[in-house]
Design goal:
By secondary structure, this protein is α+β, with helices and mostly antiparallel strands. 25% of the residues lie in helices and 30% in strands. The chain is elongated.
Length: 354
C-alpha cells in the first residue's frame, strides 16, 4: 500500500486492467492498455512574509489554464492557515484578474483598477513584484509582462527582475501609468531604442509616442492619452505594405511614419513630417545620394544626415517635426532618428512612398 501511494504521488502509477481469469491472448492485449495516473498539476504563487517574497504552491483544477489559475489565486490572497503562519500579500482585497493572454514573448495581463488603488509607492512595487514573480514561474518563452488596469497600460515588467521604484503618472480619468513602462512597450513595438528607456518623458519618447499614435490612427499629441494607453496594450509590430528581401524603407505620408524594414520585418518606426499639400511624390524610388551635412540651395539651410531618393527630396534631420505635413517636399526626421535612418540606408536602398 505504501509503495502504491508513493508511485501515485510521483505521477508514475500504472493501473493494470487485466482480469484474473483472462486467456493468454487477452492478457497481452489488456497489458498494452495501461492507464497512467498523472500527478496533480501545481503552480507557484508569490506572497510576502517579513518583507520578502515567498513561494506558495496551489493545485490547478482540471480544465483550468495554469497561468490563469496562478494569477487568480494570487489576487485571492493567502488562506487563513497561511496567514496564521505569517504569509501576507500587498494586493488589496477585491482586485480581480480581468484577462490574461500572450503576445510574442509578453504576458498581457489586465487587472481591475483597484490593483493601483490606495497604497504607497513601495506597496505598489511589492504588488507588481508578486505578479512578476508568479508569472516567471510559469512554463513558456515570455520574458516580459504588460500590466494594465481595465485594459489601459500601466507598466511593463521584466520577469525575473524585481521591479524598480514605482513612479506613477496620472493618465486620463486618473488611470496610472509608468513612463518607463510606456517606454518599454514602445521599444517592444519598434518605436524606441532600448537605450532610450530611462524613465524620463524626453524628446525621444515624445517622438516615439507620436509615431505610435500616427500608425495606430490616433490623435497625434505626443502624450499618453487614454486611447494611447488602450492601444499600447492591443498593438502589435507595424507591418510593411511592400514585400521584398534586404533593406528598404517605407514612408507613409498621411500617418507621418517612416518604417525601416529588413527582410520583410519592421526594425524601427519613426515619426516624420513630409511635404505640405502632398508635395512629396508617392511611388517607388531608390537612395541615390547621401550627405552627412547637405546644403539646400533654394532654402539656404543645412540638412544633416540627408539621403536623397528623388530629385532634390531627401530624408534628413530637422529641428521641427510637427504631427502634420509641413516641409517643402523633404522628409523631416527628429534628431537621433535621422542619423539612424542615414546609417540604415545605402546607395540603391529601395524607398516606397505611400
Amino acid at each position: 500500500m505504501l509503495v502504491t501511494l508513493l508511485l501515485a504521488v510521483a505521477g508514475t502509477l500504472a493501473v493494470d486492467l487485466e482480469p484474473s481469469g483472462a486467456p493468454a491472448a487477452a492478457v497481452v492485449s489488456k497489458r498494452a492498455a495501461r492507464v497512467l495516473v498523472a500527478a496533480p498539476k501545481t503552480v507557484d504563487v508569490g506572497f510576502v512574509r517579513n518583507g520578502r517574497l515567498v513561494r506558495v504552491e496551489r493545485m490547478v483544477p482540471r480544465g483550468v489554464a495554469p497561468a490563469q489559475h496562478a494569477l487568480r489565486e494570487l489576487t485571492q490572497g493567502p488562506t487563513r492557515t497561511e496567514r496564521a503562519r505569517g504569509i501576507d500579500t500587498a494586493i488589496r482585497p477585491g482586485v480581480r484578474l480581468r484577462s490574461l493572454r500572450t503576445k510574442r514573448e509578453v504576458w498581457v495581463a489586465s487587472f481591475s483598477r483597484s490593483l493601483f488603488g490606495p497604497g504607497t509607492a513601495a506597496t505598489t512595487r511589492t504588488r507588481l513584484a508578486q505578479i512578476a514573480w508568479t508569472l516567471s514561474r510559469l512554463d513558456g518563452v515570455q520574458t516580459y509582462a504588460s500590466i494594465s488596469a481595465e485594459g489601459r497600460l500601466a507598466t511593463v515588467l521584466r520577469l525575473g527582475v524585481r521591479p524598480g521604484a514605482w513612479r506613477a503618472r496620472a493618465g486620463e480619468k486618473g488611470y496610472a501609468y509608468s513612463v518607463r513602462g510606456v517606454q518599454l512597450r514602445l521599444w517592444q513595438l519598434g518605436y524606441l531604442s532600448r537605450a532610450d528607456v530611462n524613465g524620463s518623458f524626453d524628446y525621444a519618447t515624445t517622438q516615439s509616442v507620436t509615431a505610435f499614435q500616427g500608425w495606430e490612427g490616433l490623435s497625434r499629441t505626443g502624450t499618453v492619452t487614454g486611447e494611447t494607453q488602450v492601444a499600447l496594450v492591443k498593438a502589435d509590430l507595424p507591418r510593411p505594405r511592400s514585400a521584398g528581401s534586404g533593406r528598404r524603407i517605407e514612408i507613409h505620408r498621411d500617418l507621418g511614419v517612416l518604417l525601416l524594414i529588413e527582410d520583410g520585418e519592421v526594425v524601427r518606426a519613426v515619426h516624420t513630417s513630409t511635404g505640405a499639400g502632398g508635395i512629396t511624390p508617392s511611388g517607388s524610388f531608390r537612395i541615390y545620394r547621401k550627405e552627412t551635412m547637405s546644403w539646400s540651395v533654394p532654402f539656404r539651410v543645412w540638412m544633416p544626415y540627408a539621403a536623397y531618393f528623388v530629385g532634390g527630396i531627401a530624408t534628413h534631420q530637422y529641428p521641427h517635426v510637427p504631427e502634420y505635413p509641413a516641409s517643402h517636399g523633404c522628409v523631416r526626421l527628429p534628431k537621433g532618428d535621422a542619423a539612424r535612418v542615414f546609417r540604415f540606408v545605402e546607395i540603391g536602398t529601395p524607398v516606397d512612398v505611400f
